[in-house]
Amino acid sequence: MPVSGRSVITRGRVARTLGALVGTSALLLTGCATNTEGGDLPSGGDTVEVNKVDAIAAELPEEIASDGEIIVGVNIPYSPNEFKDPSGKIVGFDVDVVDAVAKVLGVTPVYTEADFDKIIPSIQAGGYDMGMSSFTDTEEREEAVDFVTYFSAGVQWAQPAGGAVDPNNACGLRVGVQTTTIEDIEEVPAKSAACVAAGQPPIDIIKFDSQDDAANAVALGKVDAMSADSPVTAYAIKQSDGRIETAGEVFDAQPYGWPVAKGSPFAEVLQKALQHLIDDGSYLEIAQNWGVVEGVITTSQINGATS
């Protein structure tokens, strides 16, 4: 299965077709999802107290230290990692983690929107100090840039509360997916084909234009389950007011990382700052705020690709 996170044609496991957007999977008591860009502000983003660590900040490359800024290339939306709140501010789990890292380093992050496939080339050209867009750290990408790992993401199924769905034995069930995602194109169809090969009924794959719609369908019992990237599913569950829950474990997990220029000493500084946040509990607190604890890591690595 292709890696999670974004590539030049995929974002998370979402294929980037023209105009395709990932919703925030926020569920109201009525079962309607409204917390997309321009809607009500989703939960998460609570302030976590973080202080500068002089010993780590002292290791910043001179050009960043003198500017007092980290220029961060980001492509949105991809809730809950990076998206815009109703005021147009870029928010999300990734944003809160990078904000916290910047506080450790005593600098200000400057988030600059860009096409996803232009972020790594811009880092190579010196336009951005780092990228922050749910990149999977892969061996192929490590040939172009270095990565600082900060999260582990895979595929996670969800079901209505109290359900008993087994993602590995879902023959004959109605399973919701967002159209053009890897879950839609590869993961669930492969499971369905295995059902047919075993003489069982295929999975009835129900396609939705947005992740909000898929999550609402689960909450309302219109489908038996849904499949999505693990942070997307976790956030949908957090927003569902207890109406949906996980089905099975996260699988095909791989590391998300921040890309930086190949050989740059900035990678080690970022890694140390993030490890400080992991060790003092701030990182976990941020993950709890956004409902993505399943993907937290205990050790940040430089170039931690698994494939």
Structure keywords:
single chain, 307 residues, alpha/beta, D-Maltodextrin-Binding Protein, domain 2, three-stranded parallel β-sheet
Notes on the structure:
With 307 residues, this protein is of the alpha/beta class. The chain has two domains: 10-154 and 254-295, D-Maltodextrin-Binding Protein, domain 2 (3-Layer(aba) Sandwich); 155-252, Periplasmic binding protein-like II (D-Maltodextrin-Binding Protein, domain 2, 3-Layer(aba) Sandwich). The protein is 30% helix and 24% strand. A hairpin with a 2-residue loop joins β1 (10-11) and β2. α3 (93-105) crosses α8 and α3 (93-105) runs antiparallel to α9. Mean pLDDT is 86; it is low at 6-42.
Task: Give me a quick take on this structure.
With 307 residues, this protein is an alpha/beta fold.
How many domains make up the coordinates? 2
CATH architectural type of the largest domain: 3-Layer(aba) Sandwich
Strand % is 15-25%
Which term fits the overall shape?
elongated
Question: What class, by secondary structure content?
Answer: alpha/beta
- Give the helix tally: 9
Largest sheet: 6 strands, mixed
User: Strand tally, please?
Assistant: 13
Assigned CATH class of the largest domain: Alpha Beta
| Rounded average pLDDT | 86
User: What is the end-to-end distance?
Assistant: 11 Å
CATH topology of the largest domain: D-Maltodextrin-Binding Protein, domain 2
| Poorly predicted spans | 6-42
Helix content: 25-40%
Order of helices and strands: EEHHEEEHEHEEEEHEHEHEHH
Please, what is the CATH homologous superfamily of the largest domain? Periplasmic binding protein-like II
